[in-house]
Amino acid sequence: MTVRAAVIGLGIMGRRMLEHMAKHPGYEPVAVWDPDPDAYQAAHAIAQGAEITTSAEDAIAAADVVYLACPPGPRKAYALAAASAGKAVFLEKPLGIDVRESEGLVAGLKDSGVPAAVNFTQAAGAALTDVSRAAHAGKLGKLVGADIIVTYASWPREWQKAADWLRFRDEGGMTREVISHFLFFSERILGPLSVVWARPSYPIVSDLCETHMLARLENADGIPVSIMASVGGAQPDRQELTIKGTLASRRITDFYIDARSDGGEFTEPTQRPSDPRGSSLKAQLDDLLLCIARMPNRLATPDEALRVQKLVEAMLVEKP
């Protein structure tokens, strides 16, 4: 039987997930909702069988699993409403922006007993699976650190500009939206991290999000994760994480492209899929079915997402 799915929030992420749910044999998109009526036309073209409901509550009532792609602010309320109705919950990241609120969300999801996961898109992908396997098998040698480098000509990027909240300090910014993915990946390899120091830079207009981030984090053994992120200048996007070992290192570029070095140039050990994003989203949806069935899966847990959120929010505090 297919799982009936509802999507709340029909921006770029909501439409992407709706598209891949419609393609996946395990799902039937049955309901969509967004507070902006203009969002419905594109969603209807993607999944014509899905009902455009008049409220988020109606969308929740129609489904077995609710995917939340709304901005972080209202995410807790919708997630707990879905959980109280006995629906499985799949949340977009970040889990939230207020740590106490998110702690309450995680506690509420646990109390409800419903299956719940957070969409860190690399969780079920081939890159994280393969790097984790290599690291734990000792193929990288002794792990000595990780480097996260993120640079953009502008933020939000052109394809994100419809989501206006991404440019504001309260909910948006590249640290929450992009660096969080690589922090999640790093914790899967190195274990829980803590912030040693962080230096965000903000524009003069005080309500806008950070333009630069320098930070050092460490795991329990003192292995460092170094972060350098910046916005500005004519350049292509650069998004990469390097997990460094004494025998070999692995570099993940643009979330999906995995390359290996034993001291020379980085080379890709396997052929890239023709549609890396599509392959990654399918893997996420495959594992979401396992999560809904209460079976072992690779998706990010709410506890993992909360840990990443705490790191991110600690990094974003402006230092005197």
Tell me what the structure shows.
- The chain has about 325 residues and is α/β, with parallel strands linked by helices.
- The chain has 2 domains: about 5-115, NAD(P)-binding Rossmann-like Domain (Rossmann fold, 3-Layer(aba) Sandwich); about 125-315, Dihydrodipicolinate Reductase, domain 2.
- The protein contains 9 helices and 13 strands.
- The strands form 2 sheets. Strands 8-9-10-7-11-12-13 form a 7-stranded mixed beta sheet, covered by helices on one side. Strands 3-2-1-4-5-6 form a 6-stranded parallel beta sheet, sandwiched between helices.
- Strand 9 and strand 10 (about 225-230) form a beta hairpin.
- Helix 4 (about 75-85) packs parallel to helix 5 and helix 7 crosses helix 9 (about 300-315).
- It is globular.
